[in-house]
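Q: what does this look like with cobalt (II) ion bound?
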Amino acid sequence: MAIVCKSAAEIEKMRRSGGIVRQVLDHVRGLVVPGATTMDLERAAEQKIKDLGVKPAFKGYYDYPCVLCTSINEEIVHGIPSEKRVLKAGDIVSIDCGVVLEGYYGDAAITVPVDGSLTPELTKLLEVTEASLYRGIEAARIGNAVGDVGASVQEFVEANGFSVVREFVGHGIGTRLHEEPQVPNYGTRGHGARLREGMVLAIEPMVNSGSPGTRVLEDKWTAVTADGSYSAHFEHCVAVTKDGPMILTQ
Ligand code: MF3
Ligand code: CO
């Protein structure tokens, strides 16, 4: 399968879909307090998605059971919401959500502190991860390569003393959640597929405070850092346009 370029009308539809993902994330972020469970977040998201008249993208995707992924502390991505997971002061939680609107997908993630008591190291991890996403977005320009996106993320993260996950990557997105190309958060400038007008990329740096290694838990979904260090995750969908990168998930 080749990389599918989207028309202006399709990109407009993806902007609506992406805007709805953002509304869900904004709603759920307000519920992140000590004592809440990740299942509380899941229920609120599922209701909000219903109220907004769209379909969840993750639930049922390869048998994934929920509308959100909620990944706490050393969990990198794909944490499954659970009644048993209680958020506590000093935790960080990544919330990842996708929806489908009239056949077009939106996908975004944020990592938020559970309260105001983060260590300086964790505060820096969140700031650097989010800033690295914007470095990647800046590189999503006609004529650049996929490797320019990854290199931009990686150089910024490593200059700040953290590491990028290799085993999970961003992706093209459109009428499917995962389309070509894969969008690693590492790479070499000038390498990989050339970016063309109308491509839409989900750029999603996953950044570890320690070493980059990962493993997947017995639930077959939850990815965690191999060394137990913390991990943060931010994601936007971005269209490559004549006027530069256009963020669709805001
Ligand atoms: N944002 C993640 C991704 O793009 C979420 C996928 S979770 C799944 O891969 F359950 F849908 F697989
Ligand atoms: Co994604």
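The chain has a mean pLDDT of 98. The chain has four helices and 15 strands.
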